[in-house]
Amino acid sequence: MHVPRPPRVRRPPVRAVAGCAAVLVLLGAGWLWLRDSSLVAVRQVRVTGLTGPDAPRVRAALQDAALDMTTLHVRSKQLTTAVEPYPAIEKVEAHADFPHKLRIVVHEHAAVGAIAAGSQRVAVAADGTLLRDTTTRGLPVIAIPVSPGGDRLTDRAALR
User: Fold this and answer.
1) Is the pLDDT of residue 8 over 90?
2) Residue 86 needs a FRET pair 20 to 30 A away by CA distance; which of 62, 97, 126, 150 works?
3) What's this model's pTM, rounded to 2 decimal places?
4) Buried b (16+ CB within 10 A) or exposed e, 28-57
5) 38-108, superfamily in CATH?
6) What is the DSSP track for the chain?
């Protein structure tokens, strides 16, 4: 009994494989070049969502960081690092508008209460972030025995 052989698979020519690989390498290198080129450099930055006394400094820090980017290579971590000194900032979002605009939306912590230790009052966000430059007027007061150090409230009873 004769068993038919499966059809033989033809390999593509070596030149064709090498040509495809070369094209892919060139496309990748071109993308990396374009991604960081001045052709798509951020030139206009619009920052929204800022309030409070630190707003001008936060805006300037974000604009300085954004002007080192391109619309094809937005580095969100760099924007987050720029606002780390400001505890009132919860997070930032960046939206590129090709070819030269970057919109940055700032989300701030909302004060939900004021902790009071002695005569000192400090606004606090729901996650325990201390908002030292935020007014405490009209906020419910939470009495604690000792004023917290650092940027966060750690007293479990006060957090509840």
Assistant:
1) no
2) 97
3) 0.79
4) eeeeeeeeeeeebbbeebebeebeeebbee
5) membrane protein fhac (3.10.20.310)
6) -PPPPPPPPPPPPHHHHHHHHHHHHHHHHHHHHHHTSGGGB--EEEEES--STTHHHHHHHHHHHHTTSBTTB--HHHHHHHTTT-TTEEEEEEEEETTTEEEEEEEEPPEEEEEEETTEEEEEETTSBEETTS--TTSPEEE-SSPPPSSB---HHHH-
pLDDT band with cut points at 50, 70 and 90 for residue 120: confident
| pLDDT per residue as tens digits for the range 80-118 | 999 999 989 999 999 999 999 999 999 999 989 999 988
The whole-chain average pLDDT of the chain stands at 92
Neighbours of 121 (CB within 10 A): 18
Residue identified by tokens 């996650």 is 127
37-40 long-range contacts (CB < 8 A, ≥24 apart) are 37/70, 39/99, 40/70, 40/71, 40/72, 40/98, 40/99, 40/100
Q: Where are the domains of the chain?
A: 38-108, 111-159
What does the block give as tokens for 59?
């805006």
